[in-house]
Amino acid sequence: MTHSTILIVDDDRNIRLTLDQFLAVRNYEPTTIDSGTAALTLLRETPFDLLLLDLHLRQMNGLDVLQQAVDIQPDLKVIVISGHATLDEAVTAMKLGACDFVQKPTGFIQKPFTPEELCDAIEAALQDNRRTAS
């Protein structure tokens, strides 16, 4: 059985580690990376089923990463995660191809979404991918 591959792009090490562990125990295959530039390079080389993308990265705007990521892999499902996004950024992300938007506060520990909500968003995006592939 193949497991869904998920690329996690966030410049916060703790968030990357938390999401990596959280997804690995749920039988996903997470890969973490800390910059948009490195993520785009990896996406050119490796197909992923899903991208979890922070909008506010140090080196590159997450919206730019999103736009280029879906150009590189048009079937890639993207869930944007951000703690400081504006409504305009959320709307723009959805227009650029994100399938969901999950708000997270700084620190991630007191996140306003439960692990189940994140899993539901991931599974919904991946189910959509499976229907499209059929």
Provide an overview of this structure.
By secondary structure, the protein is an alpha/beta fold. The chain has a single domain (5-133), classed as Response regulator (Rossmann fold, 3-Layer(aba) Sandwich). Helices cover 46% and strands 19% of the residues. The chain contains 5 helices and 5 strands, in the order βαβαβαβαβα. The chain has helices spanning 13-24, 36-45, 62-72, 87-96, 115-133, and strands spanning 5-9, 29-33, 50-54, 77-82, 100-103. Strands 2-1-3-4-5 form a 5-stranded parallel sheet, with helices on both faces. The radius of gyration is 13 Å and the shape is globular. The two termini are 17 Å apart.
List keywords for this structure.
single chain; alpha/beta; Rossmann fold; 19% strand; globular
Give the full name of the CATH homologous superfamily.
Answer: Response regulator
Overall spatial form: globular
The CATH topology: Rossmann fold
Structural class of the helix and strand makeup?
alpha/beta
Counting DSSP H or I runs of 4 or more residues, the number of helices is: 5
Give, in spatial order, the strands making up the sheet with the most strands: 2-1-3-4-5
Alpha-carbon Rg, integer: 13 Å
What is the correct CATH architecture? Answer: 3-Layer(aba) Sandwich
Averaged pLDDT, please? Answer: 81
Helix content: 40-55%
- Got a strand count? 5
User: What is the CATH level 1 assignment?
Assistant: Alpha Beta
Strand content: 15-25%
Head-to-tail CA distance between termini: 17 Å
Sketch the topology as an H/E string, one letter per element. Answer: EHEHEHEHEH
Number of domains: 1
Poorly predicted spans: 105-112
Biggest beta-sheet profile: 5 strands, parallel
